Amino acid sequence: MTESVRQVSENDQLRADIYQLFAALLRRQPSPELLQFLITLEIDDNEDNEMTKAWLSLQLAAQQFSSDQLEDEYFNLFLGVGCGEILPYGSWFMTGSLMDKPLALLRQDLMQLGFEREDNVKEPEDHVAALCEVMGVLLLEAPSYRQLAFYQRHMGSWIGRFCDSLAKAPSAAFYATVAQLAKAFFEMEANAFEQLSLDIPVNCPGSADLQPATSDLAKKVDLVN
User: Fold this and answer.
1) Is 24 within 8 Å of 34 (Cβ atoms)?
2) Where are the transmembrane segments (predicted)?
């Protein structure tokens, strides 16, 4: 192992958990267990900010919908008959087409980082749920410069537009509150990564590009089924 074990702060653990929550919500409609988790989530409503308002809105929405109801909403939004109302792929938001150059670059970076897709996964790796899943892992296991590089190259330029599109989609009811939370969260992430880019030395090894990952980061990821 060529890199020291990274100490995970409480804040980074929370960020990673939120990324994994978005991965679960955007991969498929939420299960009854996930809805119950959202309903029972303890939220400090003394904090008057956009994140708190978004958490409370999502919690209220989780009380109003069943998993069966959300199956139809998810289908209309992301799948549809031929095409859903939203195309949840980075390539689409970056270039206006699917399976484009950004996907090829993403696959190269995932390979260097040690990620492998499960054999039964059919969706391209630039699905927003897959990218959230990867970011959740990187926050816990990868150096800061790798987190920064991955976010800037594969999410930062378009994730805000994705949130706006999801919030305005005709079928979005529960998922409008998901979009509200995601918008608030990714605005905070943009600020965090902007500060991180200032803190990382320009000549930091690997900061200009992704380098091969250590073996303990390598894993198969259920990117999207």
Assistant:
1) yes
2) none
For position 89, which CATH number holds?
Answer: 1.10.3480.10
How far is residue 116 from each of residues 25, 82, 87, measured CA to CA in Å? 21, 28, 23
> Residue 146: which domain range?
10-221
> How many domains in the chain?
1
User: Would you tell me how many other CB atoms lie within 10 Å of the CB of residue 33?
Assistant: 8
In a domain, 217, yes or no: yes
207 located within any domain: yes
CA count, 13 A, side-chain hemisphere, 189: 27
Helix segments in the chain, DSSP class H: 10-27, 32-40, 50-64, 67-74, 90-95, 101-113, 128-141, 144-154, 159-168, 174-199
145 vs 47, which has greater pLDDT? 145
Q: Any residues with CB less than 8 A from the CB of 218 and at least 6 apart, and which?
A: 114, 115, 116
What pLDDT is recorded for position 194? 85
Specify the range with the lowest mean pLDDT, choosing from 21-30, 198-207, 211-220: 211-220
Q: What is the pLDDT of residues 145-181, one digit of tens each?
A: 899 999 999 999 999 999 999 999 999 999 999 999 9
- The pLDDT score that the predictor gives to residue 6 is 62
Q: Which two tokens stand for residue 3?
A: 């890199």
Distance CA 173, CA 60 (A): 12
Query: What is the Cα–Cα distance from 117 to 220, expressed in whole angstroms?
Result: 6
